[in-house]
Design goal:
One of its GO terms (molecular function) is glycosyltransferase activity. By secondary structure, this protein is an alpha/beta fold. It has 22 helices and 13 strands. Strands 2, 3, 4, 5, 6 and 7 form a six-stranded parallel beta sheet that branches.
Amino acid sequence: MGLKLHYHNHYHSPRGGALGALLLLLLPIFLPSLFSPLGHASPSMLSGLNVMMKSNFQEWNVPKSRHQRLLKSAVQRQTSERELSDLWTPLANQSLKPCAESSIAPSLPEKSEGFIQLFLDGGLNQQRMGICDAVAVAKILNATLVIPYLEVNPVWRDSSSFMDIFDVDHFINALKDDISIVKELPSDFSWSTREYYATAIRATRVKTAPVHASANWYLENVLPVVQSYGIAAIAPFSHRLTFDNLPMDIQRLRCKVNFQALVFVPHIRALGDALISRLRNPSGKSGAVATNYLQEMPDVKDKQGAGKFVVLHLRFDKDMAAHSACDFGGGKAEKLALAKYRQVIWQGRVLNSQFTDEELRSQGRCPLTPEEIGLLLAALGFDNSTRLYLASHKVYGGEARISNLRRLFPLMEDKKSLASSEERAQIKGKASLLAAVDYYVSMHSDIFVSASPGNMHNALVGHRTYENLKTIRPSMSLLGQLFLNKSISWSDFQQSVVEGHQNRQGQIRLRKPKQSIYTYPAPDCMCQA
């Protein structure tokens, strides 16, 4: 598992740059554990680097509206009752339905070949996909799966374990007829730990699994290790199982894990249910919390969208903004800050850097800003009575960046506005648990929309497709071209948006070769209705 140091570097002088380079060269000498085979930077270490590398200048000017004419019209928009009715109407039943159970009756092998141990990196949704693949590999090898170890991600810095996030007893019980699973290794194998593999090359560690490896690769390269030593530890493991040319029962098993076996722990579900109740019953009649946690608008009761809500997954963090190489209206200071960030994290090797902002936007390669996603929703017909739940980590630019989105949708809520600090105590500062709450609420929303592609977007698009739930997928190329037209009228913009998104609201798309089964569950995990 490679180490990724995510820190900010805002040195102003060549001397500062030289000192930073010297620091990086000395790190492996003074802190060798960071660079071991399974090494990763601890949260405290990364925090220290952040403090050392930061400077005091403001990273951005207050972002100005990039689409003032459209914004002015959008604020004054009116949506008819008929349009609202169409907007909130659930998807009609489609030709395919969920079908995660294999046509072959599940069965356990008479004897397990041994144990499979996995170390999963990434954020919540990358780890979720890794868990599904882990179950599939255990099935392919007739091996017993050890509950996977979740690495501490150097960006999100959350040490939550599998059992902190997912209901492990439900997981084991749901798959009891498919594979054998243990919560921890028996005493005979207690030596097989993360620390053991981090200190030296070990015969039981498999670290050469290619991306999207075939079933045969595991049978030829991993099974002999399991048979020889009784255990194989695979790391890294993210994206290490192919999506193609696998038996149907293995594909169905992956979907069974994803859509049935992986259930969040009770306190995540309880908090999620409370947030959902407060979004659907803003008067506070659900009795869960005092009504001062909710913004209210007196004329919402009789609207078509009463009792309904949209989840907006807004990923607009510094990593994404910098990697896109797009201009987001924060002025020269922001451009400089993002350019320096690209230099530190990727040594300037960002493909988009060779294109102009206009070229990137015309190709749909720029993440939608909060203002732009707000204009998209307004053009589709959502009005200022819409309850909008913001599923988001930290937005680069803070409240100033989302002020125009809030202006368009004054009933915008998030975890902090809907729940007290006491209710959020168990998830505070834990990125994976915060993401789990957002995932849960997203799966129970009437409509879901994501501002940009990513693991959360992919996971929820796939899960909501499986459940036939309305999910709006923004057409990035269309919107990029529309936003470049600074003279476009609101009526022309709205017409283009509506027409361009008629078939992007949850209609089933069949998976193509090499595409992820977790984003495109049909046809592998769905069958004729």
